[in-house]
Amino acid sequence: MIIYGTKGKNVHIEDGEFFCPRCNTEQEYRHFAVKNYFTLYFIPIFPIGSGSNYIECCGCSQTWSPDILHFDPVAAMEKAVENYRRLAVLFLLDLGHCTSTTLNELKQALDEIFDVDVDKSEIANDVTLAQSAAPDIKKFFKTETAEFDGDGKQLLVQILKRCLEAEGYIPDLEQQRIVELGKVIGLKAKQVRAILDA
Q1: Which one of 53, 72, 137, 180 has the fewest beta carbons within 10 angstroms of its own beta carbon?
Q2: Domains along the chain?
Q3: In degrees rounded to 5, what are phi and psi of residue 104?
Q4: Which ranges of the chain would DSSP assign to H, the alpha helix?
C-alpha cells in the first residue's frame, strides 16, 4: 500500500525588527513562509505550492500577517484618540451633557490616558460634526468599536464615566444608558457595572 499526501512546512525567510502591538515595543521578528510538500510515506518529496506567510514576534511569540511590518504606532495611537474622542462627544450630546465641564474632562482624560495634548478645537469640531450628522448612537458605537479589544471597550466606559462624574453624581438613568451602550459594544452588564461602581 502506498501512503501519500501533503504536508505544510515552515520555512524561515528572514529576521528583522518591528513594532509589536502586543508587546507595545520594538521587537525582533522571524518571517516564515508555509511551503506545501507532496509526501510519500510521510516524507516530504517535492514542493507543490506555497501557503501563507506570517511574522512571529521573538518577544511574545504572537504571529501576525506580514502587513504588521508596516504598522505605525503613532498613527494607530492618533486614530485611537480620535475614536474615543468622537464616541465620547456623541454620548455626551445624546445625554444632553455636552457642556464645557464634561468636554474639559474628556480632554483631560484623553491627555492623561494617551499621554498627548488633545486640541480643544478638535473636540469642538467633533461636537459640530455629531450635531449635524445626528447618527444613530447604538449603530455608531457598534461600528466604531468593532476593532476594539475588551480592554479598549472597558476604557471607553471609563472615559464616559469620568466625563459624567465631572458634573457630580451620575444618576441611575444615565448609568443605565452606559450599561446599554456597553452591551451594544460587546461588554457584559456585570463588567460595565463593575466599572461604574469602582
Answers
A1: 72
A2: 4-70 (no CATH), 73-197 (1.10.3680)
A3: -65, -40
A4: 73-95, 100-114, 120-133, 137-144, 150-165, 172-184, 189-197
Report pLDDT for 24.
Answer: 84
Structural contact between residues 59 and 28, judged by C-beta atoms closer than 8 angstroms: yes
Q: In this model, does residue 130 exceed pLDDT 80? A: yes
Q: Name the nearest CA neighbour of 59 among 16, 33, 26, 12.
A: 26
Neighbours of 73 (CB within 10 A): 13
By C-alpha distance, which of 115, 110, 192 is closest to 154? 192
Residue 58 has pLDDT above 70, yes or no: yes
Q: What angle do CA 81, 86, 89 make, to 5 degrees?
A: 125
User: Cell 445625554 identifies what position?
Assistant: 95
Residue 41: exposed, middle, or buried by beta-carbon count in 10 A (0-12, 13-18, 19+)?
A: exposed
Over residues 160-177, the pLDDT tens digits come to 999 999 998 888 999 999
Chain-centre distance for alpha carbon 82? 12
Q: What is the pLDDT of residue 43?
A: 73
DSSP class of residue 168 equals S
Q: What is the spatial distance between Cα 54 and Cα 56, in angstroms, rounded to a whole number?
A: 7
Residue 172 CA to residue 46 CA, distance in Å, equals 68
